[in-house]
């Protein structure tokens, strides 16, 4: 079947996570992605994307699983951008590309003659995406590491227990969000080019991406004048919507409306709570969340999370056990989602990776090749 983006060529100078994720999403949808990487410079410097050496863990072939996670369906070319010959080759590749993606610090690509201004003069249809940590203005010199952005961008202030220290999220979530925004921006620019024939510059930064992704927590500040704080697993605006102890494990209950709460009370033998004015509406439940939690903890204590989850789901109450990642993948398989795909390597082996989550009926994602070895064009 045809792929949605199979007529596009993307030259990808990005490394680590946000940029490679963006280009992998587009590669899954059919685009040809040429990944530009540093060549090896001896045993002490193997070259390539930094994440090639970010391990353990490694797969069975000794490749860092971090690199594998965001680099499938790409070709790799090793170019030393400090070498005039390699730099000329990079410019030639850019001249044949529809999209250029880069996440160097602001100014680096301009000094190399690979900035948007230089390339767009010769190629006005070019879509040029720059990903930075803190934009090209006052934060241009600040290093764009996910942990740093989680800290200064407010995410850690609302993550963790109220009486504990601020916590980072268990994955580099800001990079992931930024990469998805970058892919969306690239597609919007390509749509504009279809209509007008004009390319443009797309700019996305980690801090702005995080602030946008804080959604209701950010609007609490901007529109409500309230600064959110850490609440553990509780929700600032919904109750019951958190983690509860049960016999031998933990159970998540996420009631989003009064009907679900009434069903929860019926299953747990707490019908009196559904009739109590202190709990009859969501606003009332939020106001009296501690009493509500105490009642639910007592009611849930005598059965396992799995038992409660089955009965609550049957009653229409969002509930579930806390899985590890292996358990989550198994759950997706049990639901018929087919969450992973085996990708072929040049030596005949395969590597299993999680699929692209976008399902398209006419132009589905394709899985053509495993993440490349350095220079495997």
TrEMBL record:
What name goes with this protein? CAIB/BAIF family protein
Q: Is Aminoacyl-tRNA synthetase one of the keywords?
A: no
Name its species: Patulibacter medicamentivorans
MF annotations from Gene Ontology: CoA-transferase activity
- Compositionally biased residues, Basic and acidic residues: 38-52
InterPro entries xrefs: CoA-transferase_III_domain, CoA-Trfase_fam_III, CoA-Trfase_III_dom3_sf, CoA-Trfase_III_dom_1_sf
Top-level taxonomic group: Bacteria
Region Disordered, as annotated, extends over 38-57
Q: Which UniProt keywords apply?
A: Transferase
